[in-house]
Specification:
It is a single chain. By secondary structure, the protein is of the alpha/beta class. The protein folds into two domains: 9-293, 3-Layer(aba) Sandwich (Aldehyde Dehydrogenase, Chain A, domain 1), CATH 3.40.605; 298-491, Aldehyde Dehydrogenase, Chain A, domain 2 (3-Layer(aba) Sandwich). Helix content is 40%, strand content 19%. The chain starts with 27 loop residues before the first helix and ends with a strand. Bound molecules: 1,4-dihydronicotinamide adenine dinucleotide (NAI) and the ligand O=C(O)/C=C/C=C(\O)C(=O)O. The site of the ligand O=C(O)/C=C/C=C(\O)C(=O)O has 12 residues, from helix 7. Keywords: NAD, Oxidoreductase. Belongs to the aldehyde dehydrogenase family. One of its GO terms (molecular function) is oxidoreductase activity, acting on the aldehyde or oxo group of donors, NAD or NADP as acceptor.
């Protein structure tokens, strides 16, 4: 960290709950040994007002700790507080008192601090990747990709704000108008468990860059890297209170945070049912900014031309990656594959053998995030068995009790013969499960793709340029990837249609979320 002190900054005090020792685990072996030797005796804490602290009602807290398990082994890793409403309010007040000063800092000052955050994350890339992989269940390789994106989130927005300009316009020669933007206030930033650091920083970086302050809450299932992030903010010189990170569940901590009238906006990523709950909780606060990025049950359309020999490998590879990356725990995953009838049999056969060879549990496929999530996926697969779907790969995994669970492992699963109205085909399973269905015409493909309450993403595999646009422009999806998947440029609008959300984030769209705009009219003469 560029300091000459003989004692590393992370090795100071707090050994009582051994939290700082987490920073010494910069290899997977050290982290694994650490977890074994501490046997779950690690207590994560909130980061409020620039300091790590336990929520103030700590006696009530102690009975309300949340256990966090390692998905690959089922072992207890740590506990975290379930922050209660009065302590949530402490964090909000901390963000509110930091707002007047932070919102007036220059863009250059904010940019320099956020740049420093990204550099510090880069320095600790491997440590963050290790803890993310342990805490979430994803492979270390996938975790590294996600830490890199977290680094980019800060570097992107640290420079984005430097280049913003406001243009003035003359209206009918009578008035000169211009838009004046200012930070919208204090935000609740709530993120899910599938890409913990990646998605939390996708919110924190623009929020701070545009001059807002925040109370962020990671998922109670995966709080580890959010916890570590507090130290990075301290070291980067983010002023106390600008970013507060509180730990806890959704119904107690999350609900108190979003519902507070002291919060000016909410940026949320997670399940659609939670998005609906947040809308309800904030319904009477009309001016509150809401950006909701919710679930998906995304279609992948495979046209016959995409199975021609020159592109066949790419088609199979993209469809497989879209289905199974991160164990299918990405809201953008293509979990409903539709294949043109003339190539259907070939596709199913080749897709299955490709997935069998490339997506191997414990190597390229991690464990799913929690026992609760394992159970959800298991129930859908049991339903598929009952409904006599064909399993080309995978099977319904056994029921597990937490005590005996040696990890939450679900094999990549490929299903055909799933009825159109089956919950397996309709619901967001959010695991390594894909269904494949044939179609005959382009019109039918579009109709099947759009036959969903969701509208987040779609993947179109074809070599026909006219079809790329014709079909692509009819798909009810906020994001359409053609012959590729998850290619991201951080300025493009990101978000979904229908029950997949409201609002867009990324570049200037994030600016819309985190700022308020007023139009000034000056007489022209
Ligand atoms: N990115 C996505 O699209 C995600 C989709 N999901 C879907 O949602 C399903 C349920 O997963 P959950 O773990 O329940 O995700 P969730 O949507 O409940 O969790 C996301 C975040 O919201 C918080 N939260 C929950 N209830 C809240 C409330 N009333 N007010 C404020 N914050 C609240 C949670 O603590 C967490 O930080 C998954 O099986 C999956 O299908 C889950 C996570 C991410
Ligand atoms: O921003 C991205 O590149 C990916 C985002 C993924 C989600 O929002 C998700 O899986 O929830």
């Amino acid at each position: 960290m560029g300091r000459e002190s003989p004692t590393p900054w992370y090795a100071r005090a707090c050994v009582a709950d051994r939290v700082d020792d987490l920073w010494t685990c910069d290899t997977l072996d050290k982290a694994t040994a650490f977890i074994k030797s501490h046997n779950g005796q690690i207590s994560l804490r909130n980061f409020v007002g620039g300091q790590y602290r336990s929520p103030r009602n700590s006696s009530a807290e102690s009975s309300q700790c949340i256990n966090s398990f390692e998905p690959k082994t089922g072992r207890l890793i740590c506990t975290l507080p379930c922050t209660q409403p009065d302590a949530v309010e402490d964090a909000i007040r901390s963000a509110r008192s930091a707002f007047p000063t932070w919102s007036k800092t220059t863009r250059a000052e904010r940019s320099a601090i956020l740049r420093r955050v990204s550099e510090l994350l880069q320095e600790h890339r491997e440590l963050f990747a290790i803890w993310e992989s342990i805490d979430q269940g994803k492979t270390l390789e996938r975790a590294r990709i996600e830490v890199d994106r977290a680094i980019s989130n800060f570097s992107y927005f640290s420079t984005f704000i430097l280049h913003e300009q406001t243009a003035a316009r003359m209206v009918d020669g009578v008035a000169l108008t211009y838009e004046h933007r200012s930070p919208a206030g204090v935000f609740a930033l709530i993120s899910p468990w599938n890409m913990p650091l990646y998605l939390l920083t996708w919110k924190i970086a623009p929020c701070l860059a545009f001059g807002c302050t925040a109370v962020a809450k990671p998922s109670e299932v995966t709080s580890m890297t959010a916890f570590l992030l507090g130290e990075i903010f301290q070291k980067a010189g983010v002023p106390p209170g600008v970013i507060n990170i509180i730990l806890g569940d959704g119904v107690t901590t999350g609900a108190a945070l979003v519902a507070s009238t002291l919060i000016n906006g909410v940026s949320f990523t997670g399940g659609t049912q939670t998005g609906i709950a947040i809308r309800r909780l904030t319904a009477h606060q009309i001016g509150k900014h809401l950006s909701l990025e919710l679930g998906g049950k995304n279609p992948t359309l495979v046209f016959a031309d995409s199975m021609e020999s020159s592109v066949r490998e790419r088609t199979i590879r993209v469809a497989a990656m879209a289905a199974f990356e991160n164990q299918g725990e990405i809201c953008l995953c293509g979990s409903r594959v539709y294949v043109e009838k003339s190539v259907y049999q070939d596709f199913v056969r080749e897709f299955t053998s490709y997935v069998k060879a490339k997506y191997i549990m414990g190597q390229t496929v991690g464990a799913v995030a929690s026992l609760q999530h394992y159970d959800k996926i298991r129930r859908y697969l049991e339903l598929a068995v009952e409904q006599k779907a064909t399993f080309h790969l995978g099977s319904a995994p056994p029921a597990l009790a937490q005590k005996e669970a040696q990890g939450y492992w679900v094999e990549p699963t490929i299903l055909t013969d799933v009825a159109k109205d089956s919950a397996v085909q309709i619901d967001e399973i959010f695991g390594p499960v894909v269904t494949i269905t044939p179609f005959e015409t382009e019109e039918e493909a579009v109709q099947l793709a759009n036959d969903s309450e969701y509208g987040l993403a779609a993947i179109l595999l074809t070599t026909n340029g006219a079809r790329m646009r014709r079909v692509g422009e009819q798909l009810e999806a906020g994001l359409v990837w053609i012959n590729c998947w998850l290619v991201r440029e951080l300025g493009t609008p990101f978000g979904g249609m229908k029950n997949s959300g409201t609002g867009r984030e990324g570049g200037e769209h994030s600016r819309d979320v985190f700022t308020v705009v007023r139009t000034l009219h000056l007489p022209a003469f």
